Protein backbone atom coordinates (compact mmCIF):
# COMPACT_ATOMS: atom_id res chain seq x y z
CA UNK A 1 0.00 0.00 0.00
CA UNK A 2 2.69 2.47 -1.05
CA UNK A 3 0.26 4.55 -3.12
CA UNK A 4 -3.21 5.84 -2.26
CA UNK A 5 -4.52 4.42 -5.54
CA UNK A 6 -3.89 0.94 -4.11
CA UNK A 7 -6.65 1.55 -1.57
CA UNK A 8 -9.07 2.27 -4.39
CA UNK A 9 -7.95 -0.85 -6.23
CA UNK A 10 -8.52 -2.96 -3.10
CA UNK A 11 -12.01 -1.49 -2.71
CA UNK A 12 -12.91 -2.22 -6.32
CA UNK A 13 -11.63 -5.78 -6.09
CA UNK A 14 -13.59 -6.37 -2.88
CA UNK A 15 -16.72 -5.06 -4.60
CA UNK A 16 -16.21 -7.41 -7.54
CA UNK A 17 -15.75 -10.40 -5.22
CA UNK A 18 -18.84 -9.56 -3.16
CA UNK A 19 -20.98 -9.12 -6.26
CA UNK A 20 -19.82 -12.43 -7.74
CA UNK A 21 -20.61 -14.21 -4.47
CA UNK A 22 -24.17 -12.91 -4.45
CA UNK A 23 -23.87 -10.33 -1.65
CA UNK A 24 -26.70 -7.82 -1.81
CA UNK A 25 -25.99 -4.15 -2.50
CA UNK A 26 -25.97 -3.15 1.16
CA UNK A 27 -23.61 -5.93 2.24
CA UNK A 28 -21.33 -5.26 -0.74
CA UNK A 29 -21.14 -1.63 0.37
CA UNK A 30 -20.22 -2.70 3.90
CA UNK A 31 -17.37 -4.86 2.65
CA UNK A 32 -16.11 -2.00 0.48
CA UNK A 33 -16.17 0.42 3.44
CA UNK A 34 -14.18 -1.98 5.64
CA UNK A 35 -11.56 -2.72 2.98
CA UNK A 36 -11.15 0.99 2.23
CA UNK A 37 -10.60 1.78 5.90
CA UNK A 38 -7.97 -0.93 6.31
CA UNK A 39 -6.13 -0.07 3.11
CA UNK A 40 -6.18 3.69 3.77
CA UNK A 41 -4.80 3.23 7.27
CA UNK A 42 -1.93 1.18 5.89
CA UNK A 43 -1.06 3.82 3.31
CA UNK A 44 -1.15 6.67 5.81
CA UNK A 45 0.53 5.18 8.84
CA UNK A 46 2.28 1.86 8.21
CA UNK A 47 5.53 0.52 6.84
CA UNK A 48 5.43 -2.32 4.30
CA UNK A 49 1.64 -2.50 4.46
CA UNK A 50 -0.29 -5.08 2.44
CA UNK A 51 -3.89 -6.23 2.07
CA UNK A 52 -4.87 -9.73 0.93
CA UNK A 53 -8.40 -10.52 -0.27
CA UNK A 54 -9.75 -13.91 -1.24
CA UNK A 55 -12.87 -16.00 -1.44
CA UNK A 56 -13.29 -18.54 1.37
CA UNK A 57 -15.80 -21.04 2.64
CA UNK A 58 -16.89 -20.20 6.16
CA UNK A 59 -17.00 -23.70 7.70
CA UNK A 60 -18.84 -22.19 10.66
CA UNK A 61 -20.98 -25.00 12.00
CA UNK A 62 -22.85 -26.52 9.08
CA UNK A 63 -22.71 -23.35 6.98
CA UNK A 64 -20.81 -23.46 3.75
CA UNK A 65 -21.84 -20.09 2.43
CA UNK A 66 -19.01 -18.29 0.66
CA UNK A 67 -17.24 -15.45 2.40
CA UNK A 68 -14.52 -12.89 1.73
CA UNK A 69 -11.36 -13.01 3.81
CA UNK A 70 -9.49 -9.72 4.29
CA UNK A 71 -6.06 -9.69 5.91
CA UNK A 72 -4.23 -6.41 6.50
CA UNK A 73 -0.70 -6.44 7.84
CA UNK A 74 2.20 -4.04 8.27
CA UNK A 75 5.68 -3.85 9.80
CA UNK A 76 5.08 -0.89 12.09
CA UNK A 77 4.73 1.30 13.99
CA UNK A 78 2.15 -0.82 15.86
CA UNK A 79 -0.42 0.21 18.44
CA UNK A 80 -0.11 0.38 22.21
CA UNK A 81 -3.83 -0.32 22.74
CA UNK A 82 -5.44 -2.07 19.79
CA UNK A 83 -8.76 -2.52 21.58
CA UNK A 84 -9.09 1.24 21.99
CA UNK A 85 -8.79 1.66 18.23
CA UNK A 86 -11.46 -0.99 17.68
CA UNK A 87 -14.16 1.08 19.34
CA UNK A 88 -16.68 2.60 16.95
CA UNK A 89 -16.16 6.28 16.25
CA UNK A 90 -12.40 6.31 16.78
CA UNK A 91 -10.35 6.57 13.62
CA UNK A 92 -6.84 5.21 13.77
CA UNK A 93 -5.73 8.47 12.17
CA UNK A 94 -7.78 10.89 14.25
CA UNK A 95 -9.41 11.86 10.94
CA UNK A 96 -12.92 11.62 9.55
CA UNK A 97 -12.38 7.96 8.64
CA UNK A 98 -14.94 5.45 9.90
CA UNK A 99 -12.27 3.79 12.02
CA UNK A 100 -11.38 0.20 12.81
CA UNK A 101 -14.44 -0.01 15.04
CA UNK A 102 -16.62 -0.03 11.95
CA UNK A 103 -14.55 -2.87 10.48
CA UNK A 104 -15.23 -4.90 13.62
CA UNK A 105 -18.93 -4.10 13.52
CA UNK A 106 -19.31 -4.99 9.85
CA UNK A 107 -17.28 -8.21 9.90
CA UNK A 108 -18.64 -11.72 10.32
CA UNK A 109 -15.54 -12.72 12.29
CA UNK A 110 -12.65 -10.49 13.33
CA UNK A 111 -9.33 -10.66 15.12
CA UNK A 112 -6.38 -8.33 15.46
CA UNK A 113 -2.89 -8.30 16.95
CA UNK A 114 -0.48 -5.41 17.38
CA UNK A 115 2.95 -4.95 18.95
CA UNK A 116 4.57 -1.49 19.16
CA UNK A 117 7.62 -1.41 16.94
CA UNK A 118 6.67 -4.63 15.14
CA UNK A 119 3.36 -3.82 13.47
CA UNK A 120 -0.33 -4.69 13.30
CA UNK A 121 -2.28 -7.55 11.75
CA UNK A 122 -6.03 -7.54 11.21
CA UNK A 123 -8.00 -10.53 9.88
CA UNK A 124 -11.67 -10.04 9.05
CA UNK A 125 -14.12 -12.38 7.33
CA UNK A 126 -17.24 -11.06 5.64
CA UNK A 127 -20.06 -13.50 5.05
CA UNK A 128 -23.35 -12.73 3.38
CA UNK A 129 -24.68 -11.86 6.82
CA UNK A 130 -23.04 -10.43 9.92
CA UNK A 131 -22.59 -12.62 12.98
CA UNK A 132 -23.51 -12.15 16.62
CA UNK A 133 -20.82 -10.53 18.74
CA UNK A 134 -19.23 -12.13 21.78
CA UNK A 135 -18.99 -10.48 25.19
CA UNK A 136 -15.89 -8.38 24.40
CA UNK A 137 -17.49 -6.77 21.39
CA UNK A 138 -15.83 -8.80 18.65
CA UNK A 139 -17.64 -11.31 16.47
CA UNK A 140 -17.56 -14.68 18.23
CA UNK A 141 -14.98 -17.15 16.85
CA UNK A 142 -16.05 -20.53 15.45
CA UNK A 143 -15.95 -23.48 17.82
CA UNK A 144 -13.92 -26.65 17.43
CA UNK A 145 -10.79 -27.21 15.38
CA UNK A 146 -10.08 -24.27 13.09
CA UNK A 147 -7.36 -23.51 10.58
CA UNK A 148 -6.19 -20.86 8.15
CA UNK A 149 -3.35 -20.21 5.76
CA UNK A 150 -1.67 -17.53 3.72
CA UNK A 151 0.60 -17.65 0.66
CA UNK A 152 2.69 -15.05 -1.17
CA UNK A 153 4.54 -15.27 -4.50
CA UNK A 154 8.17 -14.29 -4.73
CA UNK A 155 8.99 -10.76 -5.82
CA UNK A 156 8.42 -10.32 -9.53
CA UNK A 157 5.95 -13.19 -9.89
CA UNK A 158 2.17 -13.12 -10.05
CA UNK A 159 1.50 -16.86 -9.76
CA UNK A 160 2.34 -18.50 -6.42
CA UNK A 161 3.72 -22.04 -6.30
CA UNK A 162 2.63 -22.54 -2.68
CA UNK A 163 -0.93 -23.53 -1.82
CA UNK A 164 -2.98 -25.00 1.01
CA UNK A 165 -6.40 -26.52 1.58
CA UNK A 166 -8.49 -27.50 4.59
CA UNK A 167 -11.54 -29.71 4.73
CA UNK A 168 -13.60 -30.65 7.77
CA UNK A 169 -14.18 -34.23 8.90
CA UNK A 170 -16.81 -35.64 11.22
CA UNK A 171 -14.42 -35.39 14.19
CA UNK A 172 -11.93 -32.70 13.22
CA UNK A 173 -10.19 -31.63 10.05
CA UNK A 174 -7.62 -32.65 7.46
CA UNK A 175 -5.32 -30.13 5.78
CA UNK A 176 -2.70 -29.85 3.05
CA UNK A 177 0.29 -27.55 2.52
CA UNK A 178 2.07 -27.76 -0.85
CA UNK A 179 5.17 -26.16 -2.37
CA UNK A 180 5.40 -26.67 -6.14
CA UNK A 181 9.00 -27.03 -7.27
CA UNK A 182 10.54 -23.79 -8.42
CA UNK A 183 8.31 -20.79 -8.96
CA UNK A 184 6.03 -19.25 -11.55
CA UNK A 185 3.11 -20.79 -13.47
CA UNK A 186 4.49 -24.35 -13.58
CA UNK A 187 5.02 -24.43 -9.82
CA UNK A 188 1.56 -22.94 -9.32
CA UNK A 189 0.11 -25.61 -11.63
CA UNK A 190 1.64 -28.38 -9.53
CA UNK A 191 0.34 -26.82 -6.31
CA UNK A 192 -3.17 -26.36 -7.66
CA UNK A 193 -3.19 -29.93 -8.93
CA UNK A 194 -2.32 -31.07 -5.41
CA UNK A 195 -5.19 -29.01 -3.96
CA UNK A 196 -7.60 -30.52 -6.51
CA UNK A 197 -6.52 -34.10 -5.74
CA UNK A 198 -6.75 -33.41 -2.00
CA UNK A 199 -10.23 -31.92 -2.14
CA UNK A 200 -11.53 -34.71 -4.39
CA UNK A 201 -10.18 -37.47 -2.14
CA UNK A 202 -12.71 -39.11 0.14
CA UNK A 203 -10.32 -40.56 2.68
CA UNK A 204 -8.85 -38.78 5.67
CA UNK A 205 -5.99 -41.18 6.44
CA UNK A 206 -2.83 -39.15 5.92
CA UNK A 207 -0.75 -42.03 4.50
CA UNK A 208 -3.43 -42.84 1.93
CA UNK A 209 -3.82 -39.15 1.09
CA UNK A 210 -0.08 -38.64 0.59
CA UNK A 211 0.10 -41.72 -1.62
CA UNK A 212 -2.80 -40.42 -3.72
CA UNK A 213 -1.15 -37.01 -4.00
CA UNK A 214 2.17 -38.54 -5.04
CA UNK A 215 0.45 -40.41 -7.86
CA UNK A 216 -1.70 -37.47 -8.83
CA UNK A 217 1.30 -35.16 -9.35
CA UNK A 218 3.18 -37.50 -11.69
CA UNK A 219 2.49 -35.29 -14.73
CA UNK A 220 3.56 -32.07 -13.01
CA UNK A 221 7.00 -30.80 -12.08
CA UNK A 222 6.39 -32.16 -8.56
CA UNK A 223 6.14 -30.65 -5.12
CA UNK A 224 7.05 -30.82 -1.47
CA UNK A 225 3.91 -31.31 0.56
CA UNK A 226 2.46 -32.38 3.88
CA UNK A 227 -0.92 -33.67 5.04
CA UNK A 228 -2.21 -33.19 8.58
CA UNK A 229 -5.23 -34.71 10.26
CA UNK A 230 -6.54 -33.57 13.64
CA UNK A 231 -8.89 -36.05 15.27
CA UNK A 232 -9.68 -35.30 18.88
CA UNK A 233 -6.45 -35.09 20.86
CA UNK A 234 -4.28 -36.70 18.17
CA UNK A 235 -2.52 -35.13 15.19
CA UNK A 236 -1.50 -37.44 12.33
CA UNK A 237 1.13 -36.16 9.92
CA UNK A 238 2.75 -37.33 6.68
CA UNK A 239 5.08 -35.23 4.58
CA UNK A 240 7.40 -35.42 1.59
CA UNK A 241 10.16 -32.91 1.06
CA UNK A 242 10.99 -29.60 2.64
CA UNK A 243 7.86 -28.73 4.62
CA UNK A 244 8.58 -27.67 8.20
CA UNK A 245 6.11 -27.96 11.04
CA UNK A 246 5.80 -27.85 14.80
CA UNK A 247 3.17 -28.01 17.51
CA UNK A 248 3.32 -25.30 20.17
CA UNK A 249 1.43 -25.14 23.46
CA UNK A 250 2.00 -22.40 25.99
CA UNK A 251 4.25 -23.63 28.79
CA UNK A 252 5.32 -26.83 27.02
CA UNK A 253 8.24 -27.69 24.71
CA UNK A 254 7.43 -27.51 21.00
CA UNK A 255 7.10 -30.75 19.03
CA UNK A 256 8.68 -30.78 15.57
CA UNK A 257 6.90 -32.70 12.80
CA UNK A 258 8.86 -35.18 10.69
CA UNK A 259 8.74 -35.22 6.88
CA UNK A 260 10.38 -37.87 4.73
CA UNK A 261 12.77 -37.00 1.89
CA UNK A 262 11.33 -36.98 -1.62
CA UNK A 263 9.43 -35.07 -4.30
CA UNK A 264 5.73 -35.78 -4.59
CA UNK A 265 4.99 -36.89 -8.12
CA UNK A 266 8.51 -38.12 -8.85
CA UNK A 267 10.41 -39.60 -5.91
CA UNK A 268 9.01 -41.13 -2.73
CA UNK A 269 11.00 -44.10 -1.48
CA UNK A 270 9.13 -44.09 1.83
CA UNK A 271 5.71 -42.69 2.66
CA UNK A 272 5.26 -42.76 6.40
CA UNK A 273 2.96 -41.13 8.90
CA UNK A 274 3.56 -40.05 12.47
CA UNK A 275 1.16 -39.39 15.36
CA UNK A 276 1.53 -36.67 17.97
CA UNK A 277 -0.59 -36.04 21.08
CA UNK A 278 -2.34 -32.66 21.13
CA UNK A 279 -2.88 -30.61 24.24
CA UNK A 280 -5.92 -28.31 24.46
CA UNK A 281 -5.22 -24.99 22.70
CA UNK A 282 -2.21 -26.41 20.86
CA UNK A 283 -1.24 -24.45 17.74
CA UNK A 284 0.29 -26.28 14.79
CA UNK A 285 2.26 -24.23 12.26
CA UNK A 286 3.43 -25.63 8.92
CA UNK A 287 5.41 -23.60 6.39
CA UNK A 288 7.28 -23.98 3.13
CA UNK A 289 10.95 -23.17 2.61
CA UNK A 290 9.99 -19.60 1.70
CA UNK A 291 9.71 -19.03 5.47
CA UNK A 292 12.75 -19.13 7.74
CA UNK A 293 12.95 -22.12 10.07
CA UNK A 294 14.31 -19.72 12.70
CA UNK A 295 10.87 -18.18 13.20
CA UNK A 296 9.47 -18.91 16.67
CA UNK A 297 6.79 -17.72 19.08
CA UNK A 298 9.51 -16.47 21.43
CA UNK A 299 8.70 -12.98 22.65
CA UNK A 300 5.14 -13.09 21.31
CA UNK A 301 3.38 -15.93 23.11
CA UNK A 302 0.19 -13.87 23.03
CA UNK A 303 -0.07 -14.93 19.38
CA UNK A 304 -1.00 -18.41 20.56
CA UNK A 305 -4.37 -17.06 21.61
CA UNK A 306 -5.11 -15.34 18.29
CA UNK A 307 -7.12 -16.52 15.32
CA UNK A 308 -5.11 -18.88 13.06
CA UNK A 309 -5.35 -16.34 10.21
CA UNK A 310 -3.60 -13.74 12.36
CA UNK A 311 -0.92 -16.26 13.33
CA UNK A 312 -0.36 -17.20 9.68
CA UNK A 313 -0.01 -13.54 8.70
CA UNK A 314 2.48 -12.94 11.51
CA UNK A 315 4.64 -15.90 10.48
CA UNK A 316 4.60 -14.78 6.85
CA UNK A 317 5.38 -11.16 7.70
CA UNK A 318 8.20 -11.89 10.15
CA UNK A 319 9.70 -15.05 8.67
CA UNK A 320 8.90 -14.96 4.96
CA UNK A 321 11.49 -14.26 2.29
CA UNK A 322 10.85 -12.31 -0.91
CA UNK A 323 13.28 -14.50 -2.86
CA UNK A 324 10.92 -17.47 -2.97
CA UNK A 325 7.23 -18.30 -2.80
CA UNK A 326 6.11 -18.55 0.81
CA UNK A 327 3.24 -20.44 2.38
CA UNK A 328 1.98 -20.86 5.95
CA UNK A 329 -0.74 -23.10 7.38
CA UNK A 330 -1.93 -22.76 10.99
CA UNK A 331 -4.23 -25.19 12.79
CA UNK A 332 -5.67 -24.78 16.28
CA UNK A 333 -6.95 -27.58 18.48
CA UNK A 334 -10.41 -27.32 20.01
CA UNK A 335 -10.47 -25.16 23.11
In brief:
With 335 residues, the chain is α+β, with helices and mostly antiparallel strands. The protein contains seven helices and 14 strands. The strands form three sheets. The chain has a five-stranded antiparallel beta sheet, with helices on one face.
The total of beta strands comes to: 14
Return Rg in Å: 19 Å
Instruction: Compute the separation of the termini in Å.
Output: 36 Å
Question: Number of helix segments?
Answer: 7
Specify the overall morphology.
Answer: globular
**CATH class wording of the largest domain:** Alpha Beta
Category from helices, strands and their pairing: alpha+beta
Strand order of the largest sheet: 5-14-13-10-11
CATH homologous superfamily annotation of the largest domain: PPM-type phosphatase domain
Helicity, as a percent range: 25-40%
Mean pLDDT: 87
Mind sketching the topology for me?
Blueprint: H1 4-20, H2 25-45, E1 50-57, E2 66-73, H3 82-85, H4 100-106, E3 109-115, E4 119-127, E5 146-152, E6 162-168, E7 172-180, H5 185-200, H6 206-216, E8 223-231, E9 234-240, E10 244-248, E11 255-256, E12 273-277, E13 283-287, H7 308-319, E14 326-332
Antiparallel strand pairs: 1-2, 2-4, 3-4, 5-14, 6-7, 7-8, 8-9, 9-12, 10-11, 10-13, 13-14
Keywords for this entry:
alpha+beta; 5-stranded antiparallel sheet; 28% strand; 335 residues; 2 domains; Phosphatase 2c, domain 1; Heat Shock Protein 90
Amino acid sequence: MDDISAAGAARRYATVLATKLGFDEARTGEVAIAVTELATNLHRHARDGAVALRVARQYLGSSEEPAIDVVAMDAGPGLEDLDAHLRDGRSSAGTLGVGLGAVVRLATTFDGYSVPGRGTIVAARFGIERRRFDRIGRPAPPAGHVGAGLTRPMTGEVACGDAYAIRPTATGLVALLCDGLGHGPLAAGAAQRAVSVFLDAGEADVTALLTRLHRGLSHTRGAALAVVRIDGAVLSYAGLGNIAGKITTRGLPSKHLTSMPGIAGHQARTIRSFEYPLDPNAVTVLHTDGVSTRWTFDGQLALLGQDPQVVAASVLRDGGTRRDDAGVLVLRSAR
